[in-house]
Design a protein that fits this description.
This protein is an alpha+beta fold. The chain has a single domain, classed as Up-down Bundle (Bacteriocin As-48, Chain A). It has helices at residues 32-45, 53-63, 67-77, and strands at residues 30-31, 80-81, 88-90, 96-98, 110-111. The strands form 2 sheets. A 3-stranded antiparallel β-sheet has the order 2-3-4, with no helix packed on it.
C-alpha cells in the first residue's frame, strides 16, 4: 500500500527529489538556542504522533543532513516523500509523518544570542 502518487516500479524515476525548504519566518524573532530547544522537543515527542520509530529516526537524520545524504537516507528507509521539502512523508505502510519547518531549516528572523 502507498499513497496517491506513489509507485512500486523499479528505479526511482518517479521518486520525488528532496529540495531545500522555502524561507520562512517565525512569529517572533528567536535565538539559535530557542530553535534548538524547539527541535529537541519535537524529536523527543515525534514517535508519540504515530508511525514507526525507525522512520522518525531516519527523518531526523535526513533533516540534519545535506540534500544528497538526506535523499540517500529517505530512499534507503523506504520513505515516500509527498512534499519535496520533507514536510509531509509516508512510510511503506501508509503512515503519515509531518515535519514542521523549524526542524528542516532556520527562520529568516533568527536573532543573535544576547
Amino acid at each position: 500500500m502507498g499513497c496517491v502518487g506513489s509507485s512500486q516500479t523499479k528505479g526511482d524515476g518517479n521518486a520525488k527529489k528532496i529540495k531545500k525548504p522555502k524561507p520562512w519566518k517565525h512569529s517572533e524573532p528567536i535565538t539559535r538556542t530557542q530553535l534548538m530547544q524547539m527541535r529537541d522537543e519535537f524529536w523527543d515527542t515525534a514517535p508519540h504522533y504515530g508511525g514507526r520509530k525507525e522512520i522518525w529516526d531516519a527523518l531526523k537524520a535526513a533533516a540534519e543532513a545535506d540534500l544528497t545524504l538526506a535523499q540517500a537516507i529517505v530512499d534507503s528507509a523506504g520513505v515516500i516523500v509527498q512534499n519535496p521539502d520533507l514536510t509531509v512523508c509516508y512510510d511503506e505502510r501508509g503512515a503519515k509523518y509531518e515535519l514542521p519547518k523549524y526542524v528542516l531549516s532556520e527562520p529568516t528572523n533568527l536573532k543573535r544570542e544576547s
